[in-house]
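Quick illustration, no need to memorize.
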Amino acid sequence: MNASEVRRDSRRVGGRGASRALALVGILLFSPGIIHAKDKIVSTASEQLAFGVQMAQRYLWSEALFRFRQAEKLEPGNVRAMNNIAVALEAVGRFEEALAQYQLALKADPNNMELKRNYGRFAEFYQNFKAKPKSEPVMVPTQPPPGGAS
């Protein structure tokens, strides 16, 4: 699945959160092959990255984040792992950590175009996110609206 397919699918799924999650899957840096970890122990950085991408494609972002961090432990300074950690942190809503991770990755490889593109997308989102005033607490109605789910 390429980025244009992800964007097209996000419109069908509906909801702003769904679109954001699908877009995040599209910006991951990953290899075309996927490793199935149930058959063997995943022990190399590239295997951890591939398995993490597979988890992200299933929206299992906590597991994806774990795998990306494992890849970074196995291969410190791996910019793909650093980028994917930032993407996963963004997906789970840990925006300040994602920002720090993007900056760390950019410091390690300032000329990486894919990383710069991902950071640019995140920075635009994050700037808008920080600019919005905190909304008041949402009041949950005691009864569903007429014609709504029961």
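The helical segments are 3-13, 16-27, 45-57, 61-74, 79-91, 95-108, 113-131.
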